[in-house]
Amino acid sequence: MVEVSNPVEALHADVLTGVPHGFLGRRGGVSTGAVAGLNVGLGADDAREAIAENRARAVAAVAPGARLVTVYQVHSGDCVVAGDWDDAHRPHADALVTDKPGVVLGIVTADCAPILLADVQAGVVGAAHAGWKGAFCGVAEATVEAMIALGASRNRIVAAIGPCIAQASYEVDEGFRARFIAQDEALGHFFAAGREGHWQFALEPYVAHRLALAGVGQIESLSRDTYADEEGFFSFRRATHRQEATYGRQFSLIACP
Asked: Core-most of 16, 130, 153, 205, by most CB within 10 Å?
């Protein structure tokens, strides 16, 4: 189990050098029990005081003094411009963008792929939550278009994909694969044969594929498996397989340079 006295750890992407950002895991928080560590998920069975403290620590580790803005994530392809809403009035969406200094965008994940994007020259950043459904519905493309609407240039946008469930840990059934094949038979190469009637889905490469379709030229994948690394990350699927009553969520944060 994670030691709550550990400092907050933030993974960084080379393509986002110079941009305040971080892909955080579960180390460095005050939560205990099944969500021990830096749980930032409002939907987890955790004390609200602990979640608030963890969120404050996360922001301080990435963009000290910045105002945190998040959305109510629903596995959609929708992106919004960050506003001044509070947690109780978050819009339902799975990505958000900003060109405002002093704002830090936050996305929570627990196996889905977090995407952080930036156009440094334009001073525009974005953050997206890309599970298979959100990616399939175009959340990466929607985030790029929302950034462009704020003044970003498609050919300057760079993106990093943070820790998420790896192909070896992500078993799906034939019906799942059929959705992708029906859209484009070429998407079959994101699936490796598994046990009878099942496949292993490569979420991270698929998200990178969707970013490339959106015109993002520089894409970095951190290739960290949230399912396999119990000490480092929370995982919905791991908790489900163990029949645990709740699971934590980790933050991915980005602010304007």
From this structure: 130
Contact between residue 118 and residue 99 where contact means Cβ atoms under 8 Å apart: no
SS3 label, residue 200: strand
pLDDT digits (tens, 9 = 90+) for 97-143: 999 999 999 999 999 999 999 999 999 999 999 999 999 999 999 99
Query: DSSP character for 7?
Result: P
> Across the strands, what pairs with 255?
104
Angle between helices 139-149 and 203-213 (to 10 degrees): 40
Find all residues with CB under 8 Å of 184, minimum gap 6, and list them: none
* Domain annotation for the chain: domains and CATH numbers: 10-255 (3.60.140.10)
For the whole prediction, is pTM greater than 0.85? yes
Q: Mean pLDDT per 10-residue run, the chain (257 residues)?
A: 64 98 97 96 94 97 97 98 94 98 98 98 98 98 98 97 98 97 97 96 98 96 98 97 95 96
Give the three-state DSSP class for 58.
Answer: helix
| 3-state DSSP percent of the chain in helix, strand and coil, to 5 | 30, 25, 45
Q: What single string gives the DSSP state of each residue in 150-177?
A: TT--GGG-EEEE-SB--GGG-EEEHHHH
Cβ-based burial of 14 (10 A; exposed 0-12, middle 13-18, buried ≥19)? exposed
